[in-house]
Design brief:
This protein is mainly α. Helix content is 85%, strand content 0%. The protein is rod-shaped.
Amino acid sequence: MLEALTRLVELGGPVVVALLSLSVVGAATIFYKLLQLRRYGARYFRQLAAQVARAPAEVAADDAIGELVAFALAEREADRAGDALEAEVVRRANLLLSGLSRYLRLVELIAYISPLLGLLGTVLGMIDAFRGLEVDVNQADAGVLAGGIWEALLTTAVGLGVAIPMTAAHALLEGRVQRIGEQLQDLLERALSL
């Protein structure tokens, strides 16, 4: 494995090093986001909605969403309901969702620039291959040129290999945050209308 990675870096040069570094950063970010979002599934919101319906005063505030729901319920119970409370709940919910969306832009950026870096590596490799051909014009060999082109195209393949999973992960994580937002909105509307 390490030998293949070393060979890949030798053939692709600094562009492959940059792409591999981006893939490590992207993978770490995706792993972090998966850990952060894993608890907020449909089951979590069903249980919280059941708590709100059954015993609003006993809603567990052991995480940011529970705290927000408990705040909304407490303020409603204290007869502070109205436009000001709704505005404050919406503000806090937006801050919470903003926190859940944090670092998704980084994954999106890696997905966008990886194919461009791969293309840059290909162009640089092609320039190098043709420059080498120009220097040894008397000893021009199609095999040498094909080898240079093959090495150059390797960076495009690596760029696409990084971009495709990053794009898929970004779409899935963004969809997950959007679903959390929808479920949170429904839960808060129930809490404020009890």
